[in-house]
Amino acid sequence: MKLEDLAGLRFTYDEVGSTQYDEVPEGFHRLEHRERIGDGDEVFQRAADALLTWRMHRAAGLLVTATATPPQVGTDSLARLGPGMLIRRLRTQVGLPVPCRVVWVVNEPDRIGFAYGTLEGHPEAGEESFLITRDPDGIHATIRAYSRPATWYTHLAGPITRRTQHYAATRYVAALRRLAA
């Protein structure tokens, strides 16, 4: 699968855009991971830049390509799951494809982020959002997702898949903290 192949793919779920709200669609698992990543305007701006240039994803170990930077509604992205560091060094198309499409974007003085939804061929069905906020107690990164298995192997993996998703969320936030410092 190549990035240019994604244009004709459909979403694998009906509740497109739901990560903007607190409700989780029926039959989906929810993940929310929020951490303080620092203080001040510079931290906020560097974190936003890392997020909107896809550097956060790459720093977390995903080889990701996208049709637009910064992301906008309709941007397609293609990442590869697998041994991240090896894939990045080889710059190959090795690994399980994870095709997504951006479904919402926010760019406000105190909130910057976006969400993407899974496309056909993704091992999960659902949506994941990435948000940087400036709050009274500092700058925070929030990863919110809802998902359910979309393939036989993710269904079989059950709780392991959810633990992997939580692990990825912690890596995203750790990457943002490093890149924003």
UniProtKB/TrEMBL annotation:
InterPro entries assigned to the protein according to its UniProt record, in alphabetical order: DUF1990 (IPR018960), UCP010260 (IPR014457)
The membrane-spanning stretches of this chain are none
Provide the leader sequence positions: none
Pfam families, per this entry?
A: DUF1990
Span of domain DUF1990: 12-175
Protein name (database record)? DUF1990 domain-containing protein
Q: What is the lineage of its organism?
A: Bacteria, Bacillati, Actinomycetota, Actinomycetes, Propionibacteriales
